[in-house]
Amino acid sequence: MQKSILIIGACGQIGTELTIALREKYGNEAVIASDIREGSDALMASGPFELLDATDYEAIENVVMYYEIEEVYLMAAMLSATAEKFPMRAWNLNMNSLFNVLNLAKDKKIDKIFWPSSIAVFGPNTPKTETPQHTLMEPSTVYGISKQSGERWCEYYFKKFDVDVRSVRYPGLISWKTLPGGGTTDYAVEIFHKALEDKKYTCFLAEGTILPMMFMDDAIRATVSLMEANPEELSIRSSYNLGAMTFGPEEIASNIKAHLPEFEMSYDPDFRQAIADSWPSSIDDNQAKLDWNWKPEFDLEKTTKEMLKNLMN
Ligand SMILES: NC(=O)c1ccc[n+]([C@@H]2O[C@H](COP(=O)([O-])OP(=O)(O)OC[C@H]3O[C@@H](n4cnc5c(N)ncnc54)[C@H](O)[C@@H]3O)[C@@H](O)[C@H]2O)c1
Fold this sequence. Notes:
The protein is α/β, with parallel strands linked by helices. The chain is built from 12 helices and 14 strands. Strands 3-2-1-4-5-7 form a 6-stranded parallel beta sheet, sandwiched between helices. It binds nicotinamide-adenine-dinucleotide. Nicotinamide-adenine-dinucleotide binds at residues 8-9, 11-15, 35-37, 52-55, 75-77, 79, 93, 116, 118, 170, 172-173, 180-183, 185.
């Protein structure tokens, strides 16, 4: 079935792999990548690209009309660590981009939206282990506040205006194709690059900082399955909890050491430690399993092998 898809923020860590996965599935010409900057050579060569600012409603509307877009994946955002440095810019980008896309759907110019939330919606008073789908949230970061507000608006637009918006709370994502864009879990990607380049890494989070994480292939599979799910089966229109694995920096270091025995890890926590300390250590994602058969495939060992294999090439 042919459908026309627009990805906004397509050149980032997730967008790059999502664009290529959707192009493989729906055809290169059917998936329009867009961003405020150009992406990797592989992404740019694989299909249409538009320079597009997610905060510019008219510009998005023009692209939507020109390509007769049916589905929008909104990946543009300012991430947790950067947002603490630029609170108002983060709020404006994260919220206005979402309103632009929600309003296009409300006005029936597009049919379906994917918008990612994050484990950052949870805060220091949230139960830390097996964090439930519905629980006390109270996020304490600029980024988390924007994601929680976004979730409330998504559910509101679904209930009030029948907007088909779908969302997951991604944990920290580990990938090798594109570097991460300023989050608190970036260490789990940097560590592989440094292990191969320098045989040592200084981690900006302390030993014992256990966070929920996921390999990118699982994140892309989750995103595509949720978007393909029967709408009747979706009981959550704010955002689904999503889990795969959970570990601290010392566990990833010992997994790397099993392949590269010379690898040495040291710790020098910075401002990101406080952000990490406010987040859950594991996630209860039963609702996603029940509603759309979510099942992760990558644990830490498999992720480590995959990362090292691909980065060595
Ligand atoms: N990567 C993770 O670990 C993670 C975890 C949880 C949630 N998320 C969420 O997933 C989404 C994508 O994250 P990511 O890791 O790919 O981020 P990223 O920072 O790697 O990519 C974001 C992209 O958006 C683009 N962008 C920035 N401002 C823009 C604007 N005004 N208009 C258009 N594009 C703009 C950037 O150029 C960049 O290519 C975000 O909503 C993020 O909050 C990511």
